[in-house]
């Protein structure tokens, strides 16, 4: 919703909250999707180094758990 309304800063905050929940409940899918969405929104606000880091972490996590979230 925040992304669609171009409220990228709020979207980043909400996805970071979701990422924390993902770690707390050990939900790989939530962790990976949250990281990917954080990366997307960071890229929209021009924080490309941070966006790259989150995107890379999402891919690494995906590979580590052997998931197929990013095919």
What's the β-strand tally?
A: 0
Helical content band: over 70%
Instruction: From the alpha carbons, calculate the radius of gyration and give it in angstroms.
Output: 12 Å
Structural class: mainly alpha
Q: How confident is the prediction overall: mean pLDDT?
A: 91
Largest sheet: none
Strand content: under 5%
List the uncertain runs. Answer: none
Short description:
Helix content is 75%, strand content 0%. The chain has three helices and no strands.
Structure description:
With 71 residues, the protein is an all-alpha fold. 75% of the residues lie in helices and 0% in strands. The chain is built from three helices and no strands. It has helices spanning 8-25, 28-44, 48-65. The chain is globular, with a radius of gyration of 12 Å. The termini are far apart.
